[in-house]
Specification:
2 domains, three-stranded antiparallel beta sheet, Aspartate Aminotransferase, domain 1, single chain, Aspartate Aminotransferase, domain 2, binds pyridoxal-5'-phosphate, 371 residues, 13 helices, alpha/beta, 38% helix, 15 strands
Length: 371
């Protein structure tokens, strides 16, 4: 029976095998495996590709969020972070690590992205930052959020963009990563720009913030062994990952187009009782996600035809048992849409190395579903 997985990283390896082996040999033979020329070169190239002035490599996307929050949430009277509850818990994890309080606001159903009016309504004198997640590869209109915050008298509230699912995403006059005070990226292997292990980066146009990020991800050092900032730690993008990522960067645009064409094909095929999640501002198809009323039935229908499915993400942050009892707040308008959607979302396979036959097979499976 046909079996179509959610992803297949071995295919990625085989597709780029010659390049990856050559890069591995070169980096290993150089004897320079940490903080060398590949890290510097990749950060330069990724900053340019994202149209942002500074890029600092870190160990992964979670470290990036934690360090970004440490950079901007510095006032002891402003320890709240306004964010969504449906984005996999990464921002909440970072908040928990440094004792910040997440304040959850609702999402817009059709995009599953943060509702701007509700974000502004949840911001107040205790707000230290807003974290916006470009979930599933869909762009949040950050300029509109910035303008709405300004109109409400909160122009000083920093915005962090979580771009872990949004590499190469363009729209709203620029692109993901170029709007926030800081932007965080993950290069986990399944991301639109993925390495062969963990990796991450923090981008900013602000020289002072870039310098603080560089200190915080390197023990709080200014120069060697000279600790000038509390809260520092070690978080580095190693040379092998940086060199792999530089090579993969040249495929990002074509891979994003492939992802979008897969979703377009699905969208045309699967319509009965299925709403395709997408942003009106721009998409890079990190995941192909639907909303449907009988999710279990759709999943069973697809699985029976050999199509894998997954749920991104099955539990809202505010309902995670591990955080029960930890301080949190729900924004004034509640999170009804998030609560309804978490029971209705379902992801189907979408990765650049899918074959045309596999895409056609998923289309058939979607097309034969009746709600
Ligand atoms: C939206 C989002 N933010 C943050 C992260 C954390 O990235 P990492 O797995 O590299 O720590 C992920 C990744 O898994 C993610 O999807």
């Amino acid at each position: 029976m046909t079996s179509i997985p959610m992803n297949n990283l071995r295919r990625r390896y085989l597709r780029h095998e010659a390049d990856l082996l050559r890069i591995s040999r070169d980096v290993l033979a150089s004897g320079n495996w940490i903080s060398g020329p590949h890290n510097a070169a990749f950060c330069r190239e990724f900053a340019a590709a994202t149209s942002v002035a500074y890029c600092i490599g870190v160990g992964n996307g979670s470290d990036a969020l934690e360090i970004a929050l440490r950079c901007v949430v510095t006032d002891p009277a402003r320890r709240e972070v306004v964010t969504v509850a449906n984005a996999g818990g990464y921002t909440t994890t970072a908040c928990r690590l440094i004792g910040l309080t997440p304040v959850y606001v609702d999402v817009v159903e059709a995009s599953q992205l943060v509702a701007i009016d509700q974000t502004v309504a949840a911001v107040g004198p205790a707000t230290g930052a807003v974290v916006v997640t470009h979930l599933y590869g869909g762009l949040v209109d950050v300029p509109a959020l910035r303008a709405a915050l300004r109109s409400a008298g909160f122009s000083g509230v920093p915005i962090i963009e979580d771009c872990a699912q949004a590499h190469g995403l363009r729209g709203c006059g620029a692109g993901a990563g170029a709007f926030g005070d800081l932007a965080t990226f993950s290069f986990y292997p399944t991301k639109n720009l993925g390495g062969l292990g963990d990796g991450g980066a923090i981008l900013t146009n602000d020289a002072a913030l870039a310098a603080q990020v560089a200190r915080l991800r390197m023990y709080g050092w200014d120069g060697k062994y000279d600790v000038v900032t509390n809260g520092g730690r070690n978080s580095r993008l190693d040379e092998l990952q940086a060199a792999f990522l530089a090579a993969m960067l040249s495929h990002l645009e074509a891979d994003n187009e492939r992802r979008l064409s897969i979703i377009d094909a699905y969208r045309a095929a699967g319509t009965d009782g299925i709403e395709w999640v997408s942003s009106p501002h721009g998409n890079v198809g990190h995941l192909a996600v639907v909303l449907t009323n009988d999710r279990d039935r759709l999943a069973k229908h697809l699985n029976a035809r050999g199509v894998a499915t997954a749920i991104h993400f099955p539990i809202l942050d505010c309902d995670q048992t591990g955080w029960a009892g930890a301080v949190q707040r729900i924004g004034p308008a509640g999170i009804d849409v998030s609560r309804r959607s978490v029971k209705r979302i379902l992801s189907v396979p979408c990765f650049p190395e899918m074959s045309d036959d596999e895409i056609a097979h998923v289309c058939d499976a979607l097309g034969s579903y009746s709600a």
